[in-house]
Write a structure and sequence with these properties.
- The complex is a heterodimer.
- Helices cover 75% and strands 3% of the residues of chain A.
- Chain A is mostly helical.
- In chain A, strands 1-2 form a two-stranded antiparallel sheet.
- The longest helix of chain B is centred in the C-terminal third of the chain and has 35 residues.
- The radius of gyration of chain B is 22 Å and the shape is flat.
- The mean pLDDT of chain B is 93.
- Classes of the chains: A mainly alpha, B mainly alpha.
- At the A-B interface, helix 2, strand 2, helix 4, helix 6 and helix 7 of A face helix 2, strand 1, helix 3 and helix 4 of B.
- Strand 2 of chain A pairs parallel with strand 1 of chain B, so a sheet runs across the interface.
Amino acid sequence: MHIMEGYLPWQWCVFWYLVSAPFIIYGIYLLNKQVRERRETLSLLAVSGAFIFLLSSLKMPSPVVGSCSHPTGTGLSTILFGPIITAVLSLIVLIFQALFMAHGGITTLGANVFSMGIAGPLLGYAVYRVCKAVNLNIFVTVFLVTAVADLFTYVITSIELAAAFPAAHGGFMVSWMTFFAIYAITQIPLAILEGVLIALVFKYIIQSRADILVKLGVLSQEQVTKILGSFA
Amino acid sequence: MIPAVLRKYRLEIIFAVVVIVFAALFLYEQNVQSHAKWEGSDDQGSAAIEATGYTPWIQPLWTPPSDEVESLLFSIQAGIGAFVIGYFFGFYRGKRETAKLS
């Protein structure tokens, strides 16, 4: 999902900076508030950020397609802290990769943070709210949120590129098909794997810090007792 | 009735099965589709952009001089993430064990 340095015309760089900026500013405000007022959640915030760091560094082969891509790791923090704080965590990772690996870029940062940190997590969060409303099993919920946040990130990247580079014949749609095939199709197996991994990790979080999950409103005390009982 | 151990570790088992299927598909694909290059989708995207006749208007400030150096930096990124995750899960576990003792 990384659009490389210089690979977006400057008008689009400005556009995506403007689109992402309000989310980031609000996110920094929310993050500060979280750090000040709910210090007990800090360790899980660090763990959520660390998963973005870890998973977005893993370039994995995509079995069906024969190319490589990387997960985004944004699912966990989307569930625990919401999509807006996730945007700020993603921004940190993207700046790190742009500066030290020449992966992504500073000019394309706005577009990359929009796909990975904002659009993916926002749709993931919508999925989370729906799953919660229908009282779906928490591990299935975590799987779905994580996989959707991951996959949708790449769908958005393909839309960003199709918008910037419409095909000479056929325009946006033809161009979108090209980028969709490159980014989104490759991502399907990876999104599934990431979803299953984070669902497993979520079990360990429930076993370790169910108290924080209850405070964050992710689970109720009765749900925690029931889930822990099911693993006894 | 499902044995207790399978119930207790059901998520671990599902994860292991998915990883094995993933790896098996990869190995199958690698042998059958010998033309697959396993390139990064990000690089393929850049190539598709260049194919439209576009040239990047700005270069990265700094680029790793080789694939080795780049993979080192990616490993460091993964290492930092894994360190933080391991630190806190170990810390939580230690807390639980101490709570049990007292």
